Amino acid sequence: MSRNPYMAVWIEDAGGTFVATLALYHKTTGDNWLNSLTAWYQSSGGADTTTSGTQPAGTFTTTWDGSTAAGGRASEGSYYVCIETVVEHGSQSLVRQQVDFGSKSAKTTLTPAGQITAAAVDYTA
């Protein structure tokens, strides 16, 4: 049994509708715990876009090029940046914060929650 965290990073539009998964870390085979990322699973419908297997705690970086899961391009506006972690038989943490992506570059520090002790979004216009 792994104690490495499962993690999902995704974008939702201002209305809370799923836009795209940016990163998904979980067991790549024999995974019975993927749906334990309940917020991501509910938002995305559980579409597996694996970035890699589970990872030890640490610092991670992911980027969003504005693409949607449907293959289109998202428009400027308000979006939710969502980060969820869960440890098998352990705790779950969720950061979900609204960020404006517009015509100017910006950096937004997200409010930490649970095991997610720091998170930030860098947006380059």
Automatic annotation (TrEMBL):
One Pfam family this sequence matches: DUF2271
Highest rank taxon of the organism: Bacteria
Protein name, UniProt field: DUF2271 domain-containing protein
